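Pair request: fold both.
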Amino acid sequence: MAQVTINLPQANIQGRTDYIESFTGGQYSFTLLALLPTISTRAINSTSFVSTTGGGTVPLNVTHLKLEKINNLSLLGSSNDVTLSTSDQVLVSSLATVSVSAGPVILNSRFVTANQTWIAGIYKTTLSLTASGILGGSITPPSQDFSISVPGFISPPASIGTTSILINDLSYYRAANGISSNSVIPLSTTVPYIPSIKTGNTKFSFSSTSAYNALPVTPVSTVNTTLTGIANATSGALSTTDQSLTNTSGIAVPTNNNQSLTYSYSIGASQLKTNFVQAGTYTVPLTYSWNKLSAAYPSGSLQAQANGSLSVVVSDLGEIVANQQTVNLGFATANDYKNGVNLNMPAHLKVSKTTPYNLYVRATSTNFASGGNSIPLNVLRIGPMAGQSGMNTITLSTTAQQLIQNADPVIDRNLNILYSIPASATSMLLNKPAGAYSANIIFSFVAP
């Protein structure tokens, strides 16, 4: 049996546009009078195009046919545009005054792609062409296999671009789930597939316009990735080895062959605090891959790839929290004046800074005051409790004094503070009226 195969182009499937191609439907012949007959067509033996390469069908009505010409007689202008079905469809009616010579019958086929989900394969029906009418002649062969070949392809964008995770608020370091960011990638395909991802390096590269004490060394495994909205999606840490993002059943050919995949990248709070505390940009190249399921048509492997990158952008953030707003040093006995007084304030301050920092302290008034009476500021010392490292002891004044110098970036560092008035300074309290003498104290990252 004769056979016609129409190769449906990838561009028409992706663009959802009609595809038009002409083919030879047979040879017209006659014995006596050569007048144009009535020519009809239909599909026989099947109610749809049936896959010869796997399961599935394509409806007959995606195909529209017109009679283009018989031999050299052009008939497009007088031919009907018919939708293929199992019923006879008249392509052209007898025209008694039109003569036609024997020769090839050329059909014009139009395939409507827009409302069909095309799965790679070869789909076949049997096409019948008949000529009828008085002395109308015949078409041979009267039927032939008529197939649509749907190509196997996976088509992502040429380039994915950069996905950015923006750490621009300290709350992300404290959130139970840390932070995440999504990237939506459009994809067109005619085959089921498994998506995967890998990085170009084992560690993030780092750049910054902010100061830093040491170059961060951040493994790419600190970031997890998954696909959202996919029932059989899996998740895992980024790696230089391809990480599959679904189980082995993969993702089916999407409706109308086009879909958008949402890639989600997440960093947990503990990883943020450990690996992304220094302000700057952490970047790694990504390779996205999509591999056809091995059992799907066509045989052999079919892979598409695209490149992109992931950036984690940490802003210059800072915060100082005084967990106790009031500090009281009391002089109640003679021994207090003799020996001085000390007050430990555990976790008095909580400091967060994404760049190396200095910590300063100063008073906003020139004295401790109680009504019209005053005590000099320099009676007070502020410094570290026992076991608190990296802190100086200062004498309070209106000039900012440095408690901490060039400390590494940190999130929620608790500082244990010792407030004291030493015995050497208690003489400045003598002969002062009883009362509560107070001053406002400011802690800051910069010396005002």
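--- second member of the pair ---
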Amino acid sequence: MLKTAVGWHVELEFQEDTHRTRAAALVRLPDGSEVRAHGYASRHPSDSNQPRVGEEIAGARALNELAMKLLTKAHGEIDEDSGRTSRPLV
């Protein structure tokens, strides 16, 4: 039987102007640490104004950076616990 040990909630916040969207991602981990990341999207002047698309792109980029930071954090914790240098996780 699978048992859920923890749950994470990722927060995404967006700031937009007519041509740019900025996303900020945050996850609070059970150990009390926080990991933050950012993503950006720019609309070409000839593209139609679709704020949702800008949010999706900026959000995806922020989540991608957040994932890489989490992998780096986990990699460092593996090394610290084992006392040796492990292979990269990516």
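Observation on the second member. Strands lie at 10-16, 20-28, 34-42.
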